[in-house]
Amino acid sequence: MSTYVTVEDFGALGDGTTDDTTAIQDMIDSMGYFRLLNRTYKITDTLTIPANGPYGTLYTGQGMEQSIILCDGMTGKAAIAPQSNASLYRIAMRDFKVMGDCDSCFDFSGVSGGFQLYASEFRNLWLECKADSCFKGAGNFSVLWDNVHAYSVDGHCFELGGDVAKTLINCYAHRAGPGKAGYRMAGNAILINCNGLDEGDYWGDFGAVASLDGENLQFRIHIIGGNIEDFDVAGIRLRFTGTLILEMVGIIPRKNHTYQTLIDGSQYGGEGWSLIDRRSYYAPKPGAGMSAVSRILHNSSPSFIESTGMFFDLRRTDQALTYPVPQTLSQNSAYGVLAHRFGNVDYNRSYGFNLQVPSLWTVNSASFNCARISTVRTANTSATSLRSASGGEKGQRLTIIVDDGNTTIEHNFSAAGRFITTSGANIAAGNGSVHEFVHNGSNWIQV
């Protein structure tokens, strides 16, 4: 379109000094959206989004550094908020900047009772606020934040509640206030290539606990790529219980600074939480140091935890004990054999052996197929000679456990897979006896 309606058509000047609040709100009320030019628009009151539609509208500027909404005299207020908290909002906003002295830039935190932001997206936004969180949302379903930068003096950068889908891509939490986090998420969220901090106590703060938030809500957080950087206290704080997945995430503590730990569930954690780390990496800046005894602190036991190298142990603060974290690694040996290595594996017995369940040799049979089998037992009811075991491969070991008094292991019977005994004679195997053989490529040789 060669021409289109902008806030200037409703009287806005965009000179950075004239109050354009009424003009912008008039366009919203008339058209259902606003469109900004490459100018700075001063506002002195909250811009409200119409309740119950029009759905799918686009609020847009000319670029996140070009079209600017400048808040002036707005202490205690948000720059943009819903007209009604009892409404469903499906909107898109992109390509502008909000800055100034507003408490928050977007405040949808009061929307509740089944109402929420739904099928909405926020792209290419730069948000700066003072006393509260930059973007606040209580209920967010199928909502996307893409390339949104946030800078808060005293609040969280992103404060997103709700127990359903939230997706953040290529976002940056620049600064969070004291005791706050760049990404404060309750419920379910996916963060892809999200970065920060420049300054703040916590990069992420996940879940909800009744003592702080009024309810217990599990976290289900999946972080893919990006950097957890320059935090003052901990990379991630966990509230209540849930699942945290890290994939190829860089954790980079601040230069010349002592932080507490990487993951902290020692304050508000609950039983049965899970942590899965997949090829994340730890790369502290020069002079960075950790004051805690472990990279993970928690006040309860996990239901599942596994790492490919980032986390070596877990400190149970309620027990003052440190436990090893299972490691999963694929490695090549010196001879070029690819091996999958597991650390601290539980073999179904806490006292340290793998319970074997022997296969039963066919009763009263002279031969048995032992392909992929290492241990067999007999239970013969009549005098039976064991003459061969087919299916063996060179180097395979076979253990025969005799569980009867009727078995004879026959020496050098003329058949493939025959047994060669060390004595050169048949073995009259007694009940409870054990005999071991190794396959040499043709026969079974007694050890």
Please give the structural blueprint.
Layout: E1 15-19, H1 21-31, E2 40-43, E3 47-49, E4 57-60, E5 68-71, E6 78-82, E7 91-100, E8 104-108, E9 117-118, E10 121-129, E11 135-137, E12 140-141, E13 143-152, E14 158-160, E15 166-169, E16 172-175, E17 181-185, E18 188-192, E19 195-199, E20 202-206, H2 210-213, E21 219-224, E22 227-229, E23 234-240, E24 242-247, E25 250-252, E26 258-259, E27 261-269, E28 274-278, E29 281-282, E30 289-290, E31 296-298, E32 304-306, E33 313-316, E34 321-324, E35 328-332, E36 338-342, E37 359-360, E38 367-369, E39 375-378, E40 384-386, E41 388-390, E42 397-402, E43 407-409, E44 419-420, E45 427-428, E46 434-439, E47 444-446
Parallel strand pairs: 1-2, 2-5, 3-6, 4-7, 5-7, 6-8, 7-10, 8-11, 9-12, 10-13, 11-14, 13-15, 13-16, 14-17, 15-18, 16-19, 17-20, 18-21, 20-23, 21-24, 22-25, 23-27, 24-28, 25-29, 26-30, 27-31, 28-32, 31-33, 37-39, 38-41, 39-42, 40-43, 44-47
Antiparallel strand pairs: 33-34, 35-36, 42-46, 43-45, 46-47
Keywords, separated by commas or semicolons:
single chain, 3% helix, 47 strands, 447 residues, 15-stranded parallel β-sheet, twelve-stranded mixed β-sheet, mainly beta
Q: Describe it for me?
A:
With 447 residues, the chain is mostly beta strands. Helix content is 3%, strand content 45%. The chain contains two helices and 47 strands. The chain has a 15-stranded parallel sheet that branches. A twelve-stranded mixed sheet has the order 3-6-8-11-14-17-20-23-27-31-33-34. A hairpin with a 4-residue loop joins strand 33 and strand 34 (321-324). The longest helix is centred in the first third of the chain and has 11 residues, at 21-31. The termini are far apart. Residues 347-353 have low confidence and may be disordered.
